[in-house]
Amino acid sequence: MTPALSRSAISQVVKGHLTPSHDCSTTTPIATRCAKRNHGFRTEDHERSVPAKINKKQTGSIGNASGYSFFPSKNLGAFGDGGLVVTNSDETAKSLKMLHNHGSDVRYYHDIIGYNSRLDDMQAVVLRAKLKRIDQYNNARRNAAHLYSELLADLPLTTPYEDGVGKHVYHQYTLLCDRRDEVMQALQDKLISCAVYYPVPLHQQNVFKDDCAGLSLPITESVSANCFSLPICPSLSDKTIKKIVAVIHGVLTK
Fold it and tell me: How many Cα atoms are found within 13 Å in the side-chain-facing hemisphere of 15?
């Protein structure tokens, strides 16, 4: 996605508010700028970027509201599942409190259709403990990612980019490679996990076929066709990273 293409695509299909997704744990300044320019209310999908930054500003504080996922695999993950929404709007906060409590503002009186969506105490205990260490965990992810990038630098693939404006926290370590399938097969043959996240772009999903009919997003489509992710977590050792990289070298230097 480029600024020009994003402006064109948004004008074609977006009718409500826009939700920038800080996917793969880095920030999306293009989407954030477009959301700010074109829409009065901005929400952020902040599930993977805790606590990434752009221009020293914390993701999750850029829009009017931001959603967090505490699924166990996230950078800040619970023991089970959970989530959180933060907002700078009193009106939105009131609505959210009602939605998560069966649509009720006063006990036993229900004004809207809501949900039973309360974070249980066990998950809160785990999250409070891990939150104190989130910088430590993310620094370990960053160190692992930087070693990957250093060891992969001479190969015909594209490693994650850091522009010096945002701070990447590497929920995923995602590459672009036009020989993706060969590399992934070689890794899988060695019992090394790898994955393609979201192989079908949103504008090509059946659910959006009417809204996005005829829409072409060539950069999005190219990324979807060539991206894949390598293992990354705070406990990933240098030895394991070098083993993974050696398999990739074996494919791409033939």
Answer: 3
Provide the whole-model pTM.
0.77
Residue 233 neighbours by CB distance under 10 Å: 14
Residues 6+ apart with CB under 8 A from 180: 196, 225, 226, 227, 228
CATH number for the segment(s) 134-252: 3.90.1150.10
Fold exhibited by the domain 3-131 = Aspartate Aminotransferase; domain 2 (3.40.640)
**Using CA atoms, how far apart are residues 134 and 128, in angstroms rounded to an integer?**
10
Residue found under tokens 């370990």: 140
Pairing verdict, β 65-69 and 43-45: parallel
d(CA 254, CA 112): 62
Q: How does pLDDT run across 205-218, given as a tens digit for each residue?
A: 999 999 999 999 99
186 exposed, middle or buried (CB, 10 Å; 0-12, 13-18, 19+)? middle
pLDDT tens profile 44-96: 776 665 666 666 667 766 778 888 888 888 888 889 888 888 898 899 899 99
Q: How many CB atoms lie within 10 A of CB 180?
A: 17
Amino acid at 52: A
Contact 198, 147 (CB under 8 A): no
CB 167 within 8 A of CB 211: no
d(CA 59, CA 46): 7
The answer to whether 175 touches 227, Cβ cutoff 8 Å, is: yes
